[in-house]
Amino acid sequence: MENNLGINFNQTKRIGDIHASPKLVSQINNYFSEPNRVYFEEAVPRVKAALANTVKTSGFTFVLRNSFFGKVADADVVDANFDGVTGSAEHFVLNSRLVTDLSVGYSFNKNISATIGSNNILNIQPSKSPDISSLTADNQFVYSRQVSQYGIGGRFLFARIEFSF
User: Which helix (H) or strand (E) covers residue 56, if one does?
Assistant: First the structure.
């Protein structure tokens, strides 16, 4: 049996004022706006963790992996709390998620093995964007176009045959 744990703790934050040339100082908000700040500081999960367990027995290999993705913020400025007022620092938050992968493999001999499995076996989807026209492009996009912790593809099934020479 083999167990692996990995955890990332991240925090990106602007420190101090933005220094610009005198010709650009009046345009700082154009090239480092509130959405730009969110991309740098809040669009990446502060916590990401993965726990993988592998068991090998009698030619079989069983792998169970859980990945935790912390919450992130969409960079679009919207009325995220639906109070009728759009604040300059109001952003839609995508909740944290736990994604589980599972696979089973068998080694026929030292040169041939086969594996079947699923990534995101429980088909966990990201938080849906609130029904706000500017976020969904009039409901064409269910999930954020700005940020995603782990993609929007959902469950992925696979089969693999491996040949070693």
Answer: strand 47-57
Rounded-to-integer distance, Cα 15 and Cα 37, Å: 12
CB 96 within 8 A of CB 62: no
Q: How far from each other are the two terminal CA atoms of the chain, in whole angstroms? A: 26
Q: Distance (Å, rounded) from C-alpha 161 to C-alpha 105?
A: 9
pLDDT over 70 for what percent of the chain? 87
- Judged by DSSP in three states, 158 sits in strand
19 burial class (0-12, 13-18, 19+ CB within 10 angstroms)? exposed
DSSP letter at 128?
Answer: B
Rg of the Cα trace of the chain? 22
pLDDT in tens, 96-121: 999 999 999 999 999 999 999 999 99
Q: How does pLDDT run across 32-62, given as a tens digit for each residue?
A: 877 888 888 888 889 999 999 999 999 999 9
- At residue 77, the pLDDT reads 65
What is the 8-class DSSP label of residue 143?
A: B
Cβ neighbours for 103, distance < 8 A, ≥ 6 positions apart: 61, 62, 63, 115, 116, 117, 118, 158
